[in-house]
Amino acid sequence: MATDTVLNPGESPDTVSDPRRRDFLNIAAVAFPAVGGGIAVLVPLINQMSPSADVLAQSTTEIDLSKIAPGQGVITTFRKQPLFVRNLTLKEIAEADAVPVSSLRDPQTLEQRTKEGHKNWLITLGVCTHLGCIPLGINEGDNRGKFGGYFCPCHGSQYDTAARIRLGPAPLNLAVPDYKFTSPTTVLVG
User: Fold this and answer.
1) Which residue out of 155, 171, 175, 182 is catalytically annotated?
2) 183-189 CB contacts, 8 Å cutoff, 24+ apart
3) The whole model's pTM is what?
4) How does pLDDT run across 55-89, given as a tens digit for each residue?
5) 155 noted as active-site residue
6) Cα angle value 151/178/89 (rounded, 5°)
7) pLDDT tens column, 150-189
């Protein structure tokens, strides 16, 4: 079935173009700058949401473990929060392993809270999970509570040698951040 094409005065059937192609070219000619303009607006908007250089610098913390003797700990910072790094003694490890996990409010083993092959290195955020106070116990002479770990002076939460909540209002264990050993004596947190 043939279709009749209406010709304008002065047009011959050979010079008539396909209207669908012409419509497509008109739409493309308008859409191309609009898409480009949209991208030009979105790129700076998305870029400004990226973390700044000072925030990226604080997103990881490297710790030298070589100067921390067994039974000692240090406080450093990670993302503006205190970070407890403790070198557990064999006695502290044995005390943590002797606790039945089923008796814990937030059940975790010491193995789950440390890295494989580095069971003596306990790295936790030094922030009580009750209301955010800083527990005692990382420094020599601090009150470590009756479980030998950490004691929160604000409301009396007590943690064991694996920083697991044992007594008091805190609902969870001290948090263990993501970290990895980059050498036998260096840890990268974050």
Assistant:
1) 155
2) 185/64, 185/65, 185/66, 186/62, 186/63, 186/64, 186/65, 187/62, 187/63, 187/65, 187/85, 187/121, 187/123, 188/60, 188/61, 188/62, 188/63, 189/60, 189/61, 189/62, 189/63, 189/78, 189/83, 189/123
3) 0.68
4) 666 678 899 999 999 999 999 998 889 999 999 99
5) yes
6) 50
7) 999 999 999 999 999 999 999 999 999 999 999 999 999 9
